[in-house]
Specification:
single chain, Rossmann fold, 9-stranded mixed β-sheet, 8 helices, globular, serine-type peptidase activity, AB_hydrolase_fold, FrsA_esterase
């Protein structure tokens, strides 16, 4: 929150695909001194079109390829008339490396999303309406969206998350890393202290601590049968937003798991209606 975040130099590279509705480009942009890769779907037509930055869930960087993740959402939202920028994050695909990112709780991904929005705003491209930008994140990317809302209030106009991780980083580390023997958990403990040893640090890295800073409406989607990210995490986050008087809605989907199946079309109808209301 104290840092002056930078994002610029959005560059369209090769054409990856053309459809009747949009063109898909490889892209790069600058975020706090790093070059970050990704893809961008640009709708056909004159524009300008509102834009969405997409933050994907966890995929092992060793197997990740550019634009991987949120493929259904990338396609549908571009067909609905949104410029879609899907960031790869640092340490993924063609992005620059940040060797400290994992031990620093992957907070660099938040910088990459902020940088993507700022790069869109400074791109001076006639098809992009830089006054209308939203965020969408899934799973780990949902946590990145939470962070972005508290770090940079007013940066975007609306945000949507699907099956998000906990808004308490210590809980995520216990749930996904420590119990699975990930050696990075021990590195995190050594650098920052455990929650028992350094409770102040762990409070300060939780977006729940700063929910009063949020200015954008937030829509949360979560399945009741999610065995990766428990529904209780979203219930607690939504309750904190509500207590702080924020514009938040939690949609629950009976029987849906982490990745959404039969109810995905309905969830996207709700998502596009939400973005249309706040960005059109």
């Amino acid at each position: 929150m104290a840092r002056d975040h930078q994002g610029s130099d959005l560059r369209l590279g090769s054409v990856l695909a053309r459809t009747e509705a949009y063109t898909r480009y490889a892209i790069t942009y600058e975020a706090n001194g790093l070059t970050i890769s990704g893809i961008m779907n640009v709708p056909e037509g004159k524009g300008p079109f509102p834009a969405l930055v997409l933050a994907h869930g966890y995929i092992d960087p060793a197997v990740y390829t550019t634009g991987r993740g949120l493929a259904r959402e990338q396609d549908l939202l571009a067909r609905d008339g949104y410029v879609v920028l899907h960031t790869d994050y640092r340490n993924h695909a063609g992005s620059d490396d940040d060797p400290d990112n994992d031990v620093d709780l992957r907070l660099g991904y938040t910088e990459d999303v902020i940088g993507a929005v700022l790069a869109l705003r400074s791109a001076d491209r006639p098809k992009i309406d830089d006054d209308r930008i939203g965020l969408l994140g899934r799973s780990m990317g949902g946590g990145v969206v939470y962070n972005t809302l508290v770090v940079a209030p007013g940066l975007v106009d609306a945000a949507v998350v699907f099956a998000p991780v906990s808004s308490r980083p210590a809980e995520n580390i216990d749930h996904f890393q420590r119990r699975n023997g990930d050696p990075v958990a021990a590195e995190i403990d050594a650098k920052h202290g455990t929650p028992e040893e350094n409770p102040e640090f762990w409070e300060q890295v939780s977006p729940l601590t700063y929910v009063d800073r949020v200015t954008e409406p937030l829509l949360i989607h979560h399945g009741t049968a999610d065995d990766t990210c428990p529904l209780a995490w979203s219930e607690r986050t939504a309750a904190a937003f509500e207590t702080a008087g924020k514009d938040v809605e939690l949609r629950k989907y009976a029987g849906e798991g982490h990745t959404f199946g039969p109810r995905w079309p309905a969830s996207m109808d709700t998502t596009t209606a939400f973005f249309d209301r706040h960005l059109r």
